[in-house]
Write a structure and sequence with these properties.
Radius of gyration: 12 Å
Strand order of the largest sheet: 1-3-2
Strand content: 15-25%
Order of helices and strands: HEHHEEH
Number of strands: 3
C-alpha cells in the first residue's frame, strides 16, 4: 500500500467522518484512482467501515474509521507532529 496516500485518506476521514469516495478522491494532490484504491485497501484491511447514505436523493456509500482505524490515525497524527 502506498503510505502517503493511505495516510492522507486516514487523515481526511478522521477530519470528515462519513466522507464519500468522491470527496476523498478529490481531496489533496494525489490522483483520484490512487485515493480510491487506498480506500478499497483500507476497507478490506478493516481500518475503514462503510455505511449506506444518500446525496441529492441518490444512494451513496459513506466511509468512517473503525476503532482500529481511529487508533492508527491518532498514532499517525502524533508522529506527524514530532
Amino acid at each position: 500500500m502506498e503510505r502517503t496516500s493511505a495516510w492522507a485518506v486516514l487523515g481526511y476521514i478522521q477530519e470528515h467522518p462519513g466522507a464519500t469516495i468522491s470527496s476523498i478522491a478529490g481531496a489533496g494532490d494525489a490522483r483520484n484512482k490512487t485515493r480510491e484504491a487506498r480506500v478499497r485497501d483500507l476497507t478490506a484491511d478493516g481500518i475503514l467501515r462503510t455505511e449506506p447514505g444518500s446525496y441529492r436523493n441518490r444512494p451513496t456509500i459513506r466511509y468512517y474509521l473503525t476503532p482500529r482505524g481511529e487508533i492508527l490515525a491518532t498514532i499517525l497524527d502524533m508522529l506527524v507532529k514530532i
